[in-house]
Structure formats: C-alpha cells, structure tokens
Amino acid sequence: MTEPTRILHVVGAMNRAGTETMLMNLYRKIDRKHIQFDFISFSQQDAHYDSEIKKMGGRVIKLENPQSVKELYHAIKTFGPYQAVHSHTLFHCGMASCAAWLAGVKIRISHAHTTADKSDSFLRKLYQFSMSVMIKRFSTNLLACSKEAATFLFGSNYKSNKHYAYFPNVIDYTDFISQPRQKVMEFKMREGLGNSLVIGHIGRFIGAKNHEFLIEIMKSLVEKEPSIKLLLVGDGDLKHKILEKVQQEGMGDRVHFMGIREDIATILHCMEVFVFPSKYEGLGLVLLEAQACGIPCIVSEAIQPEADIGLGLITQVNLDEGASTWADEILNNAGNKEQDSTFIADHFEKHQYSPSKGIEKLMSLYHLNNGGTYEESINRFV
Q1: According to CATH, what is the number of the domain 174-345?
Q2: Are 198 and 271 a contacting pair, CB within 8 Å?
Q3: In angstroms, rounded to a whole number, what is the distance separating the alpha carbons of residues 46 and 345?
Q4: What is the CATH number of domain 5-170+354-379?
Q5: Residues 311-357: pLDDT tens digits?
Q6: What are the residue boundaries of the structural domains of the chain, listed by start?
Q7: How far apart are CA 105 and CA 97, in angstroms?
Q8: Which contacts of 188-192 are long-range, i.e. CB under 8 A and separated by 24 or more positions?
C-alpha cells in the first residue's frame, strides 16, 4: 500500500486555540488515506489535540529545543520526506523555513495569524528583524488570515510579494449553526443558569485576551442587570489571577469558569451576547464560531475586519470607552440573535470560510491539486 503524502505543520503545541482548531477543522476533512499531517510541538507535555491526531494517523514530534535549526532539520529529515513544511509560529517561521530549506523541502510556507508580539525589547526586535530576513529568504509561500497580520509579519509591502496569498480562517460552520433545544436547556439546567441573561467569552487566559477588563465589564453589568451570568471557556497562565479577582469582587456565583471544552457549540447557543475585548488579534476564530451560532458579538478595535462576515452581528467598541459603555452595548444587543440558518450559511460560503474551500486552497499550495505548478497554485489565490 502506498504511503500517504505528508505535510509538516510547525505550531508550538496543539492545544485548543484559534490556529490549532482551524488546522484540526482541515485535518478532519482531508483524504487521510493519501494525505497526512504531522505536527511539531515545542512542549514535552501532551496537548489537547495530540491523541486525536495520533488516532487519525498523524504524528506529534516533540522538540527539546525548537530554537535550534539543527534540531528542526533533524526532525524533518527523520520523520519525512515532507511535501511541504507549513509554519504557524510568528517570527519563528523564519527558522522553520530555513530548516526545511536545508532539508530539501520544496514547499515552505510561513503563515501569519496575529498582529502583535509578546515583547518590544531591543533583543526581541533584533530577533524579529533577523527572522523577517529568513522568512523572506527561505519561504516559498506567505499566507495570512488578515491584512494586519500580513503587515505585522511580512511588512507593509507584502502585497507586492507574488508569493503572498490571503487564507481565510476555516471553521466547520455547520456544526455551530443549530443545536438541539433540549441539549441547550439541559446544559443551562446543569450549570444553574436558569433564566439568567448569559454572556460569554472563549479564549486562553493570557494578557492579550484582556480578561481583567472583562471582569470590570461584569461589575458594571451587575449594576444594570442583576440576573447577568458570565461563562469563561478556556485555560491559561492567568486563570488563577482572574479567579482571584472574581472572588475579590464578590462575583463567584455569577462567573462560571468552564475550562477547556468539547461542547463549544452548545455553550455558545446558551449565550445572548459574546464579548471579545482583546488587546490584539490576528482574526479571532471563535468570532466566526459565535456568528455561526447567530450570536451578537461585542468586540474591541483590535478585531480585524475580516472577522465580520456581514451578518450584522459584530459591534465594535474601543477599549478606552470604558466598562460602562461596553456594558450598555452588551445589554442593547441581548436578544438580537440571528435565527436564519440559510442566511448564515450563505455568508460563510461567500467569505470562503468553509473547510472545503480551505482544503481546496491548501491542496493547490501543496501541489496536490491535479499536479499544478507552483505559479499556478499561488496565482490562483492572490
């Protein structure tokens, strides 16, 4: 039996976050008898999606030192051959592309997913500059989920690069459009939500997601709508700090910490409003999931315009307008869910956010679509 063609994704760790979830949406839909994904992990701990990857025939390759081009090169040579190395690790993409070039991989993709970095120190800026040079030198393809993400990683003249293409984030929106009413009601009963006005947020507990401000919004909401409840889905380094803040504010019975969940669609359908006060975002995959559920979304100015698929569900509020203004917008939008599933589906297809569209693009970029040439592949999607 012929071995499947393998693609290596460099991701850091396959935990449940936007980029990783998008990759799983694609991986579940590809023809895995003929094409397989492997994943580089920077963590020695098991990540959320690792077991599912292995069950589907993929491999999770854990590196001791991901900053080592030598170790990346060794992994590519050991577990390959690879048709393509597709990196999603911000400026580290330069290192991954260099290692892939040294290993003789012909297709080397650097993929931008965010609009900011964790530090602006001199050493970090020096690292960014050197990695930018390597990205341009060793990548054969440049992809981004938004214009701002492309500008941040590839520079303001990214459009002039003939190897650049816009790649919309992909979700299996049909899984979110509708949920059995009984299932949603059972969840509400189990979580003690009753007839409360339920709002929510899904995201890692990291500084960029701005959970502290979200708790300030909740304080203001409680004054305006005493029955309010907040669902927080996710995990992360700052979770304990936010939990302490909630307890200090006396809102322990109003804020539900849900952890990492598989039943995201059910949880979203319990919400009246989705709140997303990020300090920066590449796109925000969860915003697509929320819109697929028809839920109004109150978002910060950091959210990229590509995240709004035209359903009239996105309301943007600047962070400096304060918690009270955010609370007012949340209450103004409560009860405005979009109920027309056909209308929602049409907009997702129009904006090419479906897995079928994403797979078609990737297969062409990987040269697995009718044997097309590199130029034919890239020009098709610029």
Answers
A1: 3.40.50.2000
A2: yes
A3: 35
A4: 3.40.50.2000
A5: 999 999 999 999 999 999 999 999 899 989 999 999 998 888 888 88
A6: 5-170+354-379, 174-345
A7: 9
A8: 188/270, 191/231, 191/256, 191/270
